[in-house]
Design the sequence.
């Protein structure tokens, strides 16, 4: 088959899929996003005219920009903490025998099946004074005058990381399991300790999947609002909480404008990060 | 005094991988561990490297018991089957990596790495990433890296298995030259008899977790001490036989394999395994085989025949190309072992 024919065949086979995606995803999203450019409080399809009023309001002062930067910083922190915890745990699971490794994978997938809402409620109980850890510790005499540990930033951060860990582990487990065990054996023979092997061999060799997992965590958490709203104080809330609030109060155009700002920020950040670090990762061989 | 393994047992779960292996490797010698897949040769190599704990037995290096010594304390380098080159480092960085553990400055490390790369003819590729060198080049880098810490013992785990025949031959020669130049001992695992015989001073033949025989290639060919070595090393044909006073018969039949041979001192009414090469056959016996096809080896005709489900090669001593042949075996050119000698 010539190259032209091959390109034509590829186009023909992908065209129906592209059309489907265009009709079911791209067009509705474009329509929705177009509402960001309608007058505040009145969507385009409800007779609202074209306007940049929503964006003027967003950038009127630094409030929303501040919340956006706070959200980005929080999500970066959550991604980093998650990777730091998930990586060594995944290394341990990857070294287990097949049966135990499979058991862990099933457990991780099961924990992912729980919704964000259920997880958040479960943690509210765990962190509450009445029936959670603070009460137990007080009962054991380890704490005095214990209060509930939620709402607050630490509780929110803890649960965001907790919720992200299984996702990261599921992402990291296949490359770690496939990683050639003789790489670490070689380093050990050269005199490197297990910790040195982890830092000097395992981490650099797996930088591509780690980077991809980090990006995925960033993307997933950027739009999260349930955990933030249920376990954080209003001052801790992520940007998506505001979007949800405006949706609930039927100011769809403003909510969509906020969502568009968040989307653009995330896309720009992911793009810049990929250009800065992703290419190097992409050049590394899969192991 | 080189490396010694004494009565080494390795058990994984309920499975015994090594069952009392003994091995002596004299300083400066090249030994190949030869055997079929799963016979325990890589496990033995890992025991020598310190990467595999032994269940019983001991390993000595230069007279010192190193059974429980860490891999890094054994002064040996290893080339793994997968080569285990670090994909995040380039060629020279891979060779410099083990030197980080030595008390050297960065420029000293670089100098040593470059001289090693020069030895394996890879210095011009020093800055290449690992993804952009060929299999043979990667092999050379792995050898250079394994030699970086100036080990007294180099362990090679099927290092050439992924290479084409020509490159394999080239690298075999090269590793032999390097070994002689540096005067180090080398232990190489292989399942390729040709590789084992062409490159090493001594070959250890392993089967089912045991060392069947250790000897020079000549010894193994001319004086196999077990039926496994006779069959595996010589790639000989096999017949199950029964000895009576007047001769050796095919087991369970009255087909004569060979007339009595007093020099072999065989016990009457005993089962034997007979291993014979293509050249050892005679027309005087009564072993029946079906000829499948013929081939001319330049002055010698061979028949590929089917005998009791086995494919055998025998010299064509008959005129024309008969469909069936009856043959016997010259015992003086064959190897015979009591049947219960085999595992």
Sequence:
């Amino acid at each position: 088959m010539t190259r032209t024919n091959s390109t034509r065949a590829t186009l023909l086979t992908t065209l129906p899929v592209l059309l489907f995606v265009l009709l079911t995803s791209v067009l509705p999203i474009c329509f929705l996003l177009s509402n960001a450019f309608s007058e505040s409080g009145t969507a385009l399809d409800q007779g609202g005219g074209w306007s940049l009023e929503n964006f003027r309001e967003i950038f009127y002062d630094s409030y929303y920009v501040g919340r956006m930067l706070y959200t980005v910083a929080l999500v970066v922190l959550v991604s980093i903490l998650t990777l730091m915890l998930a990586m060594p745990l995944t290394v341990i699971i990857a070294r287990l025998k097949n049966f135990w490794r499979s058991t862990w994978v099933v457990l991780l997938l099961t924990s992912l099946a729980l919704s964000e809402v259920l997880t958040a409620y479960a943690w509210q109980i765990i962190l509450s004074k009445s029936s959670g850890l603070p009460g137990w510790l007080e009962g054991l005499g380890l704490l005095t005058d214990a209060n509930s540990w939620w709402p607050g930033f630490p509780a929110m951060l803890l649960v965001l990381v907790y919720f992200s860990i299984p996702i990261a582990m599921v992402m990291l487990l296949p490359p770690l399991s496939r990683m050639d065990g003789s790489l670490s054996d070689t380093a050990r023979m050269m005199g490197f300790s297990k910790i040195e092997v982890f830092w000097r061999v395992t981490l650099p060799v797996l930088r591509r999947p780690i980077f991809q997992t980090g990006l995925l965590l960033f993307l997933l958490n950027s739009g999260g609002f349930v955990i933030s709203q249920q376990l954080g104080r209003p001052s801790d809330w992520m940007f998506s909480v505001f979007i949800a609030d405006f949706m609930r109060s039927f100011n769809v155009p403003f909510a969509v404008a906020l969502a568009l700002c968040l989307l653009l920020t995330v896309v720009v950040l992911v793009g810049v990060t990929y250009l800065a670090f992703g290419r190097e990762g992409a050049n590394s061989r899969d192991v | 005094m080189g490396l010694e393994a004494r009565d080494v047992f390795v058990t994984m779960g309920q499975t015994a991988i090594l069952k009392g292996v003994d091995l002596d490797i004299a300083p400066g010698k090249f030994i190949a561990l030869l055997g079929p897949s799963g016979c325990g040769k890589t496990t033995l190599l890992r025991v020598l490297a310190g990467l595999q704990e032994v269940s019983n037995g001991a390993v000595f290096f230069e007279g010192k018991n190193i059974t429980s010594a860490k891999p890094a304390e054994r002064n040996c380098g290893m080339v793994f089957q997968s080569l285990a080159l670090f994909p995040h480092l380039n060629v020279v960085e891979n060779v410099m990596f083990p030197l980080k553990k030595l008390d050297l400055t960065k420029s000293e490390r670089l100098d040593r790495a470059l001289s090693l790369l020069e030895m394996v003819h890879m210095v011009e590729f020093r800055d290449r990433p690992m993804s952009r060198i060929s299999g043979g080049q990667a092999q050379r880098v792995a050898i250079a890296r394994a030699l970086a810490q100036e080990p007294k013992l180099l362990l090679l785990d099927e290092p050439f298995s992924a290479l084409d025949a020509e490159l394999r031959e080239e690298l075999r020669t090269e590793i032999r030259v390097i070994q002689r130049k540096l005067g180090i001992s080398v232990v190489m695992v292989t399942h390729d008899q040709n590789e084992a015989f062409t490159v090493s001073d001594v070959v250890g033949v392993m089967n089912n977790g045991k060392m069947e025989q250790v000897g020079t290639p000549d010894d193994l060919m001319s004086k196999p001490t077990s039926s496994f070595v006779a069959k595996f090393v010589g790639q000989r044909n096999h017949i199950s036989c029964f000895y009576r006073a007047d001769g050796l018969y095919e087991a369970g039949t009255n087909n004569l394999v060979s007339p009595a041979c007093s020099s072999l001192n065989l016990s009457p009414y005993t089962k034997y395994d007979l291993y014979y090469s293509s050249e050892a056959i005679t027309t005087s016996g009564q072993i029946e085989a079906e000829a499948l096809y013929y081939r001319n080896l330049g002055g010698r005709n061979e028949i590929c025949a089917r005998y009791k489900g086995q494919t055998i090669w025998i010299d064509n001593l008959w005129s024309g190309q008969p469909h069936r042949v009856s043959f016997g075996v010259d015992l003086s050119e064959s190897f015979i072992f009591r049947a219960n000698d085999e595992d």
User: Anything to note?
Assistant: Confidence is low (pLDDT under 50) at residues 282-287 of chain A. The CA atoms of residues 150 and 231 of chain A lie 6 Å apart. Chain A is about 75% helix and 0% strand. Chain A touches chain B at residues 180, 182-183, 185-192, 201, 204-205, 207, 283-285, 287 (CB under 8 Å).
